[in-house]
Structure formats: C-alpha cells, structure tokens
Amino acid sequence: MNDNAPHILVVDDDTRLASLLKKYLSDNGYRVSVAESAEDAATKMKGLSFDLVVLDRMMPGQDGLSFAKSMRETRGYNQTVAILMLTAMAEASDRIDGLEAGIDDYLTKPFEPRELLLRVAAILRRSRQETISDICFGEFAFNIPKGELAKDGVPINLTSSEQILLKTLATSPGVPVSRDVLSLSSGTQGRAVDVQITRLRRKIEVDPKVPRYLQTVRGEGYVLWAD
Fold first, then answer.
1. CA pair distance 8, 119, nearest whole angstrom
2. In 10 A of CB 179, how many CB atoms?
3. What are the backbone angles phi and psi of residue 162, rounded to the nearest 5°?
4. Cα 40 to chain center, whole Å?
5. Hey, do 7-129 and 134-224 end up sharing a CATH topology, with the first three levels equal?
6. Closest by Cα among 41, 113, 128 to 82
7. pLDDT in tens, 53-81
8. Distances from the Cα of 217 to the Cα of 20, 116, 166, 222, 224, angstroms
9. CATH class of 134-224
10. pLDDT tens digits for 79-133?
11. Which of 81, 117, 204, 216 is the least crowded, having the fewest Cβ atoms under 10 Å away?
12. CATH number of the domain at 7-129, out of 3.40.190.170, 2.160.10.10, 3.40.50.2300, 3.30.559.30?
C-alpha cells in the first residue's frame, strides 16, 4: 500500500459492513482504518490524521450526526477533514440535517459500491482544491480555487462545466481521471463529458486533435499534464 495514498476512517457499528468497506476501499488504493463507534473514532483521530471520514449516522452512543457536529466545532485538523455520511434515512430533511451538521456528501443505504468509490474520489478532489492554488502548463496558468484560466496573463473565458472539469483534472496532474468521476463532479452525463473535453482542448491546445496537455488515456479517462 502506498503510504501517500489518502487515509480513510470508516466509522460504523455494523462490523460486517465496516469490514466490507475496508476491503473494497483498500482494494481501490486507499489506506483504511475502522472505528466501531463515535467514541472509538475520536480516539483514533487523536493519534492519526485522515483525509476522509466515512460515517454511519445511526450508531449506539453518540450518533453520526452529533459526531459530525462535534468535529466541526472542535478547533484543529478535525474541524476541516472531509465527511461522507452513510444512512438509511433518505428524506430530504435528513439530508439537510446532515449538511447543516457540516458533512460534505451524503449517501443512502443500500448503495452501489461503485457509487461510493466515485463519491469518495470526488470529495477528496474537492478537498485538494482547497490546498492547491495555481497550476501551470505551457503558456497557461489555472487558479484552482477561483477556476480562472489565463494565457500569458490574459484571461480565458471558461463555462461553468469547463471550470469544474479543469479543476477536477488539475487537482491530480499526471493522474488519469475516469469519465465517471468527471461526470459526477461536473453533473455532465455520459458522452457529454467528451464534448466538454473537446471544447476545453480548443482553448488550451495549439492542435486540439493532437493534444499536449489534456490527453486521453485509453480505458482510463483523461489526464492533464502540468509543467
């Protein structure tokens, strides 16, 4: 396992589900720790740093909602770590309660493992956007937090979809990003991602048909090559 891989804390009192989540996330390249309760999670978070907490809502003792609130109210690293909440409670009011508590995303049970993986990837990319500023490729500079692209200091107009796609690619330069992840992050469906990529290439490539920076990786998706 890569020591630089994102570290995920799975918090769930259902030990069978927690074990399955650990195996699935580990098999897909993440480092994973497991906690059986909010109290257990709080203890682990005192000694280890995590990039994401996958948090069950209904647990004995302190439930996931109140634990998320306590994380956001505590000064320090745990105040900003990303949270994905898992729950069987699917009403709009339940989702609103979770978002108001400070969670980053919400996934209802039962869920497709592939959707979980895509949401985890999307959350981690958004988190990275907050720590990375400018990325340069050729004559272009892209400010990730602001979504602003410039060529030799001259602003290049981007649509909202193009901004989101470029942000998603720019947070992991040199790493292929799948169409599924790009679709989830941008809200663009199916092959519409390919259309948006083609339009983006027209703005950043000398020859869009032979791209230098925004390339296709067969069977994997797209990759942005930075300087």
1. 13
2. 17
3. -65, -40
4. 25
5. no
6. 128
7. 999 988 989 999 899 988 888 765 566 78
8. 30, 23, 16, 5, 10
9. mainly alpha
10. 678 999 988 876 777 778 877 888 888 888 888 888 898 889 888 877 765 556 7
11. 216
12. 3.40.50.2300
Answer for the pair 120, 127: CB distance below 8 angstroms, yes or no.
Answer: no
User: What is the Cα–Cα distance from 44 to 49, expressed in whole angstroms?
Assistant: 9
Closest CA to 217 of 161, 179, 163: 179
Average of per-residue pLDDT across 14-37:
93
For residue 209, give every residue at least 6 positions away whose Cβ sits within 8 Å of its Cβ, in sequence order, or none.
none
For residues 152 and 206, give the distance between their C-alpha atoms in angstroms, rounded to a whole number: 14
Q: What is the length of the chain? A: 227
Is the Cβ–Cβ distance between 127 and 82 less than 8 Å? yes
Residue with the two structure tokens 């959707």: 115
Please report which residue ranges of the chain form alpha helices under DSSP H: 15-27, 38-47, 64-73, 92-100, 113-129, 160-170, 179-186, 192-204
Structure tokens at 108: 């209802």
The answer to whether the peptide bond before residue 113 is cis (omega within 30 degrees of 0) is no
Taking the domains of the chain in order of start, what are their residue ranges? 7-129, 134-224
Cα–Cα distance measured from residue 219 to residue 51, given in angstroms and rounded to the nearest whole number = 27
CA distances (Å), origin 89, targets 41, 103, 114: 22, 15, 20
Contact 39, 62 (CB under 8 A): yes
Cβ pair 42, 11 in contact under 8 A: no
